[in-house]
Write a structure and sequence with these properties.
The chain has 423 residues and is α+β, with helices and mostly antiparallel strands. The protein is 39% helix and 20% strand. It folds into two domains: 14-171 and 227-316, BirA Bifunctional Protein, domain 2 (2-Layer Sandwich), CATH 3.30.930; 329-422, 3-Layer(aba) Sandwich (Rossmann fold), CATH 3.40.50. It has helices at residues 14-33, 47-54, 59-64, 83-92, 95-98, 137-153, 172-183, 192-200, 211-216, 229-244, 289-292, 307-316, 336-351, 365-374, 385-390, 408-418; strands at 37-38, 44-46, 67-69, 75-78, 102-111, 123-132, 160-165, 250-251, 263-270, 279-285, 300-306, 329-333, 356-358, 379-383, 392-397, 403-407. The chain binds histidyl-adenosine monophosphate (HAM).
């Protein structure tokens, strides 16, 4: 075969897609419970939106974006994340005028040209939440609590929440200087990436994955210990709320995050089941982003998590098995005279919300029965000329193995009694 999918992208095949439906449906339902409303934005945007929003000096913007010129010479980018796009849409459509606080959620594909490995793809999918319009720590908590609730609902237990405060415009510059003072004598021993970041983004050095960097920065001053009163109060308040909501967390002063827009709260949910790419989700407050994108000051906070990583963890969680749905009923024709008639009955069942399948290949009864077992149908409905003449069918319970003749008029009713989910 000449064509293969692009490195770092994946086909979602039928043997897996039911697991995606499962986690997506749970997210839609939970979002409704927490009164978030869905937002969908285009898959590409002007490059400038992300360059400004995420930060020119971040890895995402500097190395990972799928950027191209369209035929009119515009520079466009496949979205590497949603937050900048959501804020763009919020400002463009004046959502703030419709209601004081917008609670938005999404499920969407993202694109980053990273080196593919377990849990790291070039097209991946995120679930996400954004609360735009309020500076209070209750909103930060609402984002974190719903994310924790989502993992709990899915039965995922091997997950830990780490929170931090990365300060604000007032307290960060002073802290940055202290950090640089600490790092300066160690500069020549730091990794190349970290040396490069020293001038541009020294905060990222303390969450470097490089072993030597980690040793050298073990005692580095942390932003959380150098917060202004406002940030400190916000961080304390958030922790009070999380405790009240029974959400376990650990403060980790080294959570910095790879996007530049964060102020005050930054957090990550991590799972040991993931290996080196251990972030299940991450987020924080971004009070300056709307202004950076040319709007007014609009405080906001959000989270996004990878669906592929979620599914990896789900696979390894004992109490989180997802069962593949199968047809409840398989309709098998014993001879050709009954085939079309049976197709009419198949449709009656489907119209009554009973998931069923029938033979589309004109196979023998034996082959159809084999197919019914292969597809794990709970019941088989069998009919030939004789049953057709009497307007009845044979209903076979595939697990128990017993069967009975049933008048066609009663079939829906009988099956609905056996299959409560079809009611
Ligand atoms: P992020 O940390 O860049 O944050 O991505 C969030 C999550 O997306 C990660 O924790 C991870 O689960 C998943 N993810 C990221 N890159 C990949 C990849 N290459 N392959 C697979 N999964 C990946 C954001 O995107 C922010 N927009 C989050 C946010 C929302 N902050 C405020 N609101």
């Amino acid at each position: 075969m000449k064509f293969k999918s692009i490195t770092g992208t994946k086909d979602l095949l039928p043997g897996e897609s039911y697991r995606w439906h499962y986690v997506e449906e749970k997210f839609h339902k939970l979002a409704r419970r927490y009164n978030f409303r869905e937002i969908r934005t285009p898959v590409f945007e002007h490059t400038e939106l992300f360059a400004r929003g995420i930060g020119e000096l971040t890895d995402i913007v500097g190395k990972e974006m799928y950027t191209f010129e369209d035929r009119s010479g515009n520079s466009l980018t496949l979205k590497p994340e949603m937050t900048a796009a959501v804020v763009r849409a919020y400002l463009q459509h004046n959502l703030g005028q419709q209601q004081p606080v917008s609670k938005l959620y999404y499920l969407a594909p993202m694109f980053r040209q990273e080196r593919p490995q377990k849990g790291r793809l070039r097209q991946f999918h995120q679930f996400g939440l954004e609360i735009i319009g309020t500076p209070g720590a209750l909103a930060d908590a609402e984002i974190i609590v719903m994310t924790a609730d989502y993992y709990a609902e899915l039965g995922i237990t091997n997950v830990k929440l780490k929170i931090n405060s990365v300060g604000c415009e007032k307290c960060r510059p002073g802290y940055k200087e202290k950090l640089k003072e600490f790092l300066r004598p160690k500069l020549s021993d730091l990794s190349e990436d970290s040396r490069r970041r020293f001038e541009t983004n020294p905060l990222r050095i303390i969450d470097s994955k490089d072993e030597r960097d980690r040793e050298l920065t073990e005692k580095a001053p942390l932003q959380k210990d150098h917060l202004c009163n406002e940030c400190n109060e916000h961080f304390t308040h958030l922790q009070d709320i999380l405790r009240e909501a029974d959400v376990e967390y650990a403060v980790d002063g080294k959570i910095v995050r790879g996007l530049d827009y964060y102020t005050k709260t930054a957090f990550e949910f991590i799972s040991s089941a993931l290996g080196s790419q251990d972030a299940l989700s991450g987020g924080g407050r971004y009070d300056l982003l709307a202004r950076e994108l040319g709007g007014k000051n609009v405080p906001a906070v959000g989270v996004a998590g990878g669906i592929e990583r979620l599914l990896l963890v789900l696979e390894e969680s004992e109490n989180a098995a997802v069962e593949e749905p199968h047809p409840a009923v398989y309709l098998a024709a014993a001879d050709d005279t009954a085939r079309i008639w049976l197709y009419g009955i198949t449709q009656q069942l489907r119209r009554n919300n009973i998931p069923c399948e029938t033979d589309l290949m004109l196979r023998s009864l034996k082959a159809q029965m084999r197919e019914a077992s292969r597809q794990n149908a709970a019941y088989t409905v069998i009919a030939g000329a004789e049953e057709r003449n009497k307007n009845e069918v044979v209903l076979k319970d595939m697990k128990a193995g017993d069967q009975q003749n049933v008048p066609v008029d009663e079939l829906v009713h009988i099956l609905q009694k056996q299959l409560p989910e079809s009611k």
